[in-house]
Design brief:
The protein has about 180 residues and is mainly α. It is about 80% helix and about 0% strand. Helix 3 crosses helix 5, helix 4 packs antiparallel against helix 8 and helix 7 packs antiparallel against helix 8. The longest helix is centred in the last third of the chain and has 31 residues. It is a multi-pass membrane protein.
């Protein structure tokens, strides 16, 4: 169950991820849209397309889904749960920094690899599974167009994250 503390402080959030959200959540999701837009533009300008197309695609899906939540002031709770996925990004980015610094054969890299995979399972795979389940169970409460966007978003994000998990596992543990 994602963010149990948040659900304890705002019990309506676990029942209604469409219209219920805690104070500041809308601003957090709006700032996140800005971050994803900035990162998207940065990648377009500073990386080769063949190196970044997956992340550009990921960012596009997030920008659309979070953008809908921001504009409609609905689904902010759902977007808030989706932001749990980004907790793992800390360790993914640290991994990249350690790779660029050529520190692959260090205890720090090894420890980060273990934490990265652990947080990946908890904050990416489990959260996406929970979100997919919630969307399916609440399909009658969500308008068809929004349900379609959410379903397509989850159908894109889940396989992308499973593939990335496999790549991380293969790269860091089965070399």
């Amino acid at each position: 169950n994602p963010s149990p503390r948040r659900f304890c402080l705002y019990p309506g959030l676990s029942e209604d991820l469409v219209g219920t959200h805690p104070p500041g959540a809308h601003s957090l999701v709006a700032v996140s849209v800005g971050y994803f837009l900035e990162d998207f533009v940065d990648m377009l300008c500073n990386q080769k397309l063949r190196q970044s197309w997956e992340l550009l695609f990921h960012h596009s899906v997030v920008i659309i889904c979070f953008g809908i939540a921001v504009v409609l002031h609905q689904y902010v709770g759902f977007a808030l749960v989706a932001l749990l996925v980004e907790i793992n990004s800390i360790f993914l980015h640290l991994r990249q920094i350690l790779l660029m610094a050529n520190l692959v054969h260090t205890t720090c890299y090894r420890l980060n690899s273990i934490i990265n995979l652990g947080t990946y399972v908890v904050f990416r795979i489990a959260t996406l599974a929970w979100m997919t389940r919630w969307l399916y169970l609440n399909r009658e409460k969500v308008p068809p167009a929004t349900y379609a966007v959410g379903t397509v978003g989850m159908a894109i994000m889940t396989p992308m994250n499973i593939i990335l998990f496999y790549r991380l596992l293969r790269s860091d543990f089965f070399r």
